[in-house]
Design a protein that fits this description.
The chain is α/β, with parallel strands linked by helices. It folds into three domains: 3-111 and 323-350, NadA-like (Rossmann fold, 3-Layer(aba) Sandwich); 114-231, NadA-like (Rossmann fold, 3-Layer(aba) Sandwich), CATH 3.40.50; 234-313, 3-Layer(aba) Sandwich (Rossmann fold), CATH 3.40.50.10800. 42% of the residues lie in helices and 15% in strands. It is built from 15 helices and 15 strands. It has helices at 3-9, 24-38, 52-55, 64-73, 86-95, 119-133, 147-155, 166-176, 186-195, 239-248, 262-267, 274-283, 296-305, 329-340, 352-366; strands at 42-43, 45-47, 60-62, 79-81, 101-103, 137-142, 159-161, 179-183, 203-207, 212-214, 224-227, 253-256, 270-271, 289-293, 310-313. Helix 4 packs parallel to helix 5 and helix 7 (147-155) crosses helix 15 (352-366). The longest helix has 15 residues, at 24-38. It is globular, with a radius of gyration of 21 Å. The model is unreliable at 6-12 (pLDDT under 50).
């Protein structure tokens, strides 16, 4: 089920307008009071990209898979109020016990990248790939994908990957099959395969809207099939941004996420996952200078927590991810107050068969990498 389908089913669960009129101080106090009453029965994970107004109440912060794993390990928590986006809450529901309820405070919180690969497109593409290449292709999917896509990958012998372990998982995939299909982010797939030595002329983009390859070479030379998807935030960092930084600040380091384009990654000084970016800044020398190409909320938080370093966004005109930033203080409070009344709203429930098959893909990754 995609985000739009979920929204249609839960359209009656709309936050009352009164929450938009409450003062920040009053909302913060009410959240604190509810958290205290629930104690360990309530667990609030928040993704690194979330707003500070939400992160301040998080019991854990991290990347999506890390938070889902932490939620699953927390057996005391009856309710996991996931401050992130839909695919993250799905993964948490897949990994947690049936007795635990995973809740997304705002059902509009999605990921445009995850929605760029739906199951109908993927099944259709797989049929064409099998006709073209036979049994030589292994599917991999970024964890930034829907539960249905994870299930498809699991059912077909593949695995999930994160931006931290993508190299390890792509290397593993090539021990299994001659070719890989990488969903849904073409940039992470391209950057990872290139760093592992796969030439760009052996990578083809699959266009799910035309059901065709975007590729000029011989079909039999293709080793990596990249789904035509991308992160709308990271794709907006450009080589021109880097050139401007280097012109104005020649001694500034450029650090980007591998969801950026190949050109941006190759032109930058460093590239790595969100954890890599955070660790790099944590360990950077006092007085060092950094232009960071990733989501704006995280960049702002790094600026605030590292006043001893000069940190700027690689693109100063970048806006925060609109769907990633749907979870705000009013929605968090509304969700918690309904829980306090005994009402579970916006619960994320993944179909059992999809959950089982998605678990196969997750387990294949977790058995090889953490």
């Amino acid at each position: 089920m995609n985000v739009l389908d979920t929204l249609k089913k839960t359209s009656h669960n709309q936050m009352p307008e009164i929450y938009k009129t409450l003062s920040v101080e009053r909302m913060e106090q009410r959240v604190k009071d509810i958290k205290e009453r629930f104690g360990t029965r309530l667990f609030i994970p928040a993704h690194h990209y979330q707003k500070d107004e939400v992160v301040q109440f998080a019991d854990a912060t991290g990347d999506s898979l890390q938070l889902a794993q932490i939620s699953a390990e927390n057996k005391d928590a009856e309710y996991v109020v996931f401050c992130g986006v839909h695919f993250m809450a799905e993964t948490a529901d897949i990994l947690t016990d049936e007795s635990q309820k995973v809740i997304l405070p705002d059902m509009r919180a999605g990921c445009s990248m995850a929605d760029m690969a739906d199951i109908e497109q993927t099944e259709r593409a797989w049929g064409i790939l099998e006709q073209t290449f036979g049994d030589t292709v292994l599917p991999l999917t970024y964890v930034n994908s829907t539960a249905a896509i994870k299930a498809f990958v699991g059912k077909n012998g593949g695995a999930t990957v994160t931006s931290s372990n993508a190299k390890e998982m792509v290397s593993w995939a090539f021990t299994q099959k001659q070719r890989i299909l990488f969903l849904p982010d073409q940039h992470l797939g391209r950057n990872t395969a290139y760093e592992l030595g796969v030439p760009l002329d052996q990578m083809a983009v699959w266009n799910p809207y035309t059901d065709s390859f975007e590729y000029e070479g011989a079909i039999e030379d293709i080793k990596v099939i990249l789904w035509k998807g991308h992160c709308s935030v990271h794709e907006n960092f450009t080589v021109k941004n880097i050139e401007q930084v280097r012109e104005e600040h020649p001694d500034m380091n450029v650090l980007v996420h591998p969801e950026c384009s190949r050109e941006v990654v190759s032109f930058s000084d460093y590239a790595g996952s969100t954890k890599y970016i955070i660790d790099m800044i944590d360990q950077a020398p006092i007085g060092s200078k950094w232009a960071i190409g990733t989501e704006m909320n995280l960049v702002k938080r790094l600026i605030d927590t590292h006043p001893d370093k000069q940190i700027v966004s690689l693109n100063p005109h970048m806006c925060p991810c609109l769907t990633m930033n749907r979870i705000d203080l009013p929605h968090l409070l509304w969700t918690l107050e309904e829980l306090d009344k005994g009402n579970v709203i916006n619960q994320i429930i993944v179909d059992k068969q999809i959950s089982s098959q998605a678990n196969l893909a997750l387990d294949r990754m977790l058995n090889r990498s953490i």
